[in-house]
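Let us practice reading a record.
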Amino acid sequence: MLNTWGSYYGDPDIKLHADIPEIESFIDPNGNEQFYISTDGGTYHSSDALNSVWNISLDGLRVSQYYSNYSNPTNPEKIYLGSQDQGFQESLPGTSAIVEFDQTISGDYGHICSGDSGISLWTVYPSFAMRIEASSMALKFYDFVGSNYLWMQPIIADWDNADKIYAGGGGVNGGAHIIEISYNGSSLSGLEQSFDFAEGNANEKIASLAISAINTQYRYVCTTDGDFFYSTDGGLNYAKNINFAAPDNHYFYGNEIVTSNVDQAKVFVAGSGYSNPGVYVSSDNGQNFLAIDNNLPQTLVYAMAITPNDELLFAATEAGPFVYVDSLNSWFDLSGVSAPDQKYWSVEYIPLINTARFGTHGRGVWDFYS
């Protein structure tokens, strides 16, 4: 054993990640044995019989498995990423068209959001929520209490209060509750809301949640059993759509809800589309839904992003990057001949540069722009 599993987090350049799928060795032309150790934190090289190792994947490789991306809306060159086992990353300044990133903290991070246009950021690790002060990269943590959370809990920003987010529980005594997480200037605290979306089902969890950016009184929640709830009074009361089963969620990451930028009653929900449509739209605040899957392949939709005028809806999917053109009522494949053949896990639309920015699960971040 070269190091304990926890050692990697503070020193990923010379400490092995604990998940090791392969070890290879060969004799070089000088007769010396060279080792390469493949881990979930990168590939390591050793030339001294594994007495020491060096992570050769930290610079230039650009194959991180990304769960989430967030760009500063007024400075889109500033990008923040949540990855599988290669931590929370931020872009480094430079002039190259290919952006370099720094792994600021190790681990698994996803669902990045911000309520103040990137001044502060929020993300989740499988057991806690983390707030980041963007200017200093100072970190604050909130440990989730109780049980019945997804492995990577969905979170959303409170558009009325940048120091608050909402997480999909779980709960202190199980169930499926929304957890309010607040920052008081020095620390984070959590408050469990009373409504139980599990309705007595011990295994039902919150898979996604959303708040309308037009009118924050309009709120939506989807569960792992496909139950869809909507509120028109800021979450004081929720109603369940008993005639609609939302698409299945990804088993540890959830599914997706996106609200319109022009119609406060319009909302989209997406998820697994292998045995049913993968994307639906409601024009009456979630009371009724219609499928919008024309020319969308049978695939899993991880995330969506919509343009300010609602004309284009982008989808990050298991089958690649897609865009729905509202006026044509059809989806189109954006891959072309240059985009990587890979899972596209996240997407955001950046109005300042007319760009849809996708995060892939193994081939970096890709921009699609007009």
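A brief commentary: The chain has two domains: 7-55, 66-369.
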